[in-house]
Amino acid sequence: MDRRDFVRLTALGLLAGPAARPAPPPAAAPRFPIKHWAWLRGDVQNLDAWKRTLSDLRQTGITAVLVSGSADFYRTHVPSARDEGMEVHAWLFTMMRGEHVKTHPEWYAVNRKGVSTADKPPYVDYYRFMCPSRDEVRARLREVVRDLAAIEGLASVHLDYIRYPDVILPIALWPKYGIVQDKEYPEYDYCYCQVCREAFKRQSGFDPADMPDPPAQAAWRQFRYDAITGVVSLLADEVRGAKKLLTAAVFPTPTIAKALVRQDWTRWKVDALLPMVYHGFYKEDVPWIARATREGVAALGGRTPLYSGLYVPDLPPADLAEAARQALAGGAQGVSVFHGNLLTAEHRTALRSVLRSATAGSGR
Ligand SMILES: [Zn+2]
Question: pLDDT tens digit string along 11-27?
């Protein structure tokens, strides 16, 4: 797929670029703390290795880590992070959870061909997304989040995969799966389970499965944005009841997030948004990071702080520093690197000067 085709998709409105809305945030926008983050993967169990990793990140100017683990993991690792001056956020895979496939296959999202992710997930075998409309799914997620929010010292519950499966994948991934997604194809379009169909019918009078061209129906798209937004609101209430914060990893711009995964994230009740501004996934260059960031910041209008996610495998050290500069120029309150364990000493040196000057410039 070359760039011309991508431009054509953009013209179709499927992937409208962020460049059209360069408005800066209003001058009266509340200021949020400048902060830099890292998602962490790999070996984080060993306490000595954990402390070394955090110490390296701290010296780079990163003071918040997003990490998945059991309750026991957090209980042992959060105090040592605090000693290091680091916040720990519980990184949660939200809708994509395969653990109930055997016991509750009916909880899983069904595509426009009638196939459930419980039986045949799209793209990869772990893409087992649950249906956001089901009461049982919502109740289960509330339980998971309540347990995390009860853990002492965690700074936030961080929602990832808080969305539908990609109805359209980021363009750079198309060749990997041998597909061209120039429109919404039925095998990637979710959810047409009985609960969703009946709920939409009650609301609109139509069964989405009977509509001649479901992707053309704005109300049906809106129903699905609202289903995800509704899950976020429920989980926000749960987290706030425990006096914790809620943060989320989202697709790079409001436009792309709605078009690809039905996230309407500018309407979410969260305390911070970390859009994954992974330029390489969209065949974009590093300066796109500023444009994409600016679209999100402008759309949020100062209501929620935004921290731009940067994809380290596509960024040699000098490019990583430039990417951070672009994110800050676009109005981000900081950056989040994916992922922290991939940073080399050269990456950390290059990043440190940018992050340190951003923090100094904010007067914090
Ligand atoms: Zn459903």
Answer: 334 444 444 444 444 44
d(CA 11, CA 326): 26
- 3-state SS assignment for residue 178: coil
DSSP H or E run through 148: helix 135-149
Instruction: State the Cα–Cα distance between residues 221 and 262, nearest whole angstrom.
Output: 8
Nearest by Cα to 99 from 135, 142, 144, 67:
144
Question: What single-letter DSSP state applies at residue 152?
Answer: T
335 beta partners: 308
pTM for the structure as a whole: 0.91
Measured in Å, residue 320 CA sits from the centre of ligand 1 at 40
Give per-residue pLDDT as tens, 66-87. 999 999 999 999 999 999 999 9
The amino acid that residue 290 corresponds to is: A
Rounded Cα–Cα distance for residues 43 and 20 (Å): 42
351: part of which helix (H) or strand (E)?
helix 345-361
The tokens describing 291, both together, are 């444009």
Residue 58 and residue 56: Cα distance in Å, rounded?
6
Token match 């910041």: residue?
297
Q: Which residues contact 111 (CB under 8 A, 6 or more apart)?
A: 117, 122, 186, 187, 188, 189, 190, 191, 192
Q: Ligand 1 centroid vs 191 CA: distance in angstroms? A: 5
**HSE-up of 35 (CA within 13 Å, CB side)?**
19
How far is the centre of ligand 1, averaged over its atoms, from the C-alpha of 75 (Å)?
A: 35
Site of tokens 């249906």 = 131
The residue type at 257:
A
Q: What are phi and psi of 92, to 5 degrees?
A: -120, 130
Ligand 1 centre to CA of 74 (Å) is 33
- Edge-to-edge order in the sheet of strand 87-93: 272-275, 245-250, 156-160, 87-93, 64-67, 37-40, 335-338, 308-311
Distance, CA of 286 to CA of 290 (rounded, Å): 8
134 Cα–ligand 1 center, Å: 7
First to last CA, the chain: 45
CA dist., res. 318 & res. 349, Å (int): 10
